[in-house]
Amino acid sequence: MWHMKNRLSLLLVTLMFTVLPMTGQKTPVGEYSLKYGASCSEPRQDTDMQRFRHHRLGAFVHWGLYAIPGGTWEGKTYRGAAEWLKSWAKVSNEDWMKLMAQWNPERFDARAWARMLKASGARYVKITTKHHEGFCLWPSRLTPFTVEHTPHGRDVLGELVEAVNDEGMDVHFYFSVMDWSHPDYRSSLRTSQDSVAFARFLDFTEGQLRELATRYPTVKDFWFDGTWDASLRQNGWWTAKMEKMLKQLVPGVTVNSRLRADDRGSRHFDSNGRLMGDYESGYERRLPDPVKDLKVTQWDWEACMTLPENQWGYHRDWSLSYVKAPHEVVEHIVHAVSMGGNMVVNFGPQPDGDFRREEKDMVKALGNWMKRYGECVYGCGYAGLRKQDWGYYTAKDDTLYMVVFNRPYSGMLNVVMPKGQSPQMACLLDGTPLRIEETASGEYHVAMPRKDPGEPFVIRLKISRSGSTKRQYREALT
Ligand code: H76
Description:
This protein is an alpha/beta fold and 478 residues long. The chain has 2 domains: 45-376, TIM Barrel, CATH 3.20.20; 391-477, Golgi alpha-mannosidase II (Immunoglobulin-like, Sandwich). It is built from 12 helices and 17 strands. The radius of gyration is 25 Å and the shape is globular. (2S,3S,4R,5S)-2-ethynyl-5-methylpyrrolidine-3,4-diol binds next to loops.
């Protein structure tokens, strides 16, 4: 009897600890039970996340040894991305790191950089602490391949962090896990020796991340890259551990989805379809389709783009590529905001520490536009309305913005309203009123301003019903 009772309680205890947690509330039926999946299922609403979201426009800076050859190796120019030159030209690590002897950016002035990037309208700066090549912009103690061991010798990252913060902008760190300079890096784990080496590599990388988080505690975000290899996908636990570690070391920090893989190797979104990290970061040099991809409005996301087709680091010859005009860049920014995302525009400084003419001009043009029309970008998001032929809607609280890129010949901009609502007032951002007309079919038109602004411009709309515009429009859609 005693025996039986004991057995029964043993069975109960076993049940409690094994079966119940698996069928409990945590893992709904039909879902995978994951140890390293998403850490929360709703978008973060704390002040740091709101700040990230509110900024909407950031600047990316890709700077490393690759700026020195600028796309040309031994007389041959490669059209591919300049920061990948080591790979295109099959340069050995030893030869590549000889470039360190030429790292002497005499015109590098962190304060001038910060001022310039701020003038673009960007509210934060994402800096490549280490790209795939492995060269560190900070004096890492864990590798010889750093700024410290160059003729310049200065802590470029530290100077930038201070200068960017002093200009009132946030600093985000780009960090490539894939590291071509490290002997223990493996893209796949074929043998047990590979696994042992890669384990050492993960320890090394953890050490570098600890360095960055502790040396530069004002960092607001870690943006991981170079995380696609099978070796890392098989070590999803490590990506979860790094997310946790960084959040402990830097309270409030945000981490992009690209770092993460779950227990089953699923990236960005876990095997149950939940976003990992704090925001989705897969839109690189492309944007979600404004009609088909409305799902992105449900989570935070950030896209990034280059000025040429695909050059992040400095490439000497931009004539090999199409280069975007300022108004196209503005359209990409607005497109992202209209779907609830952030946009980061990339700059690839020269090896001497200055910026190329085209980038300086772009900064001026963007900055001028943002100064005049930034109201429809900062703090704005998805309005719950589809993209129109004339451009995009964005929204902030009860204000709706029409960002007009394509002027209709008629001069009349069609305004689509959810049932029961009407535009009460339309004006330019300086307050100039615009005429609203109701058509026979119950549609509304807003008249173009008498003087064509000759550039993408913004109309502010007040609508009839009170309450949250965003919510109302969302309701109207479903
Ligand atoms: C592929 C790739 C990398 N991801 C972009 C953000 C650049 O850093 C590019 O080299």
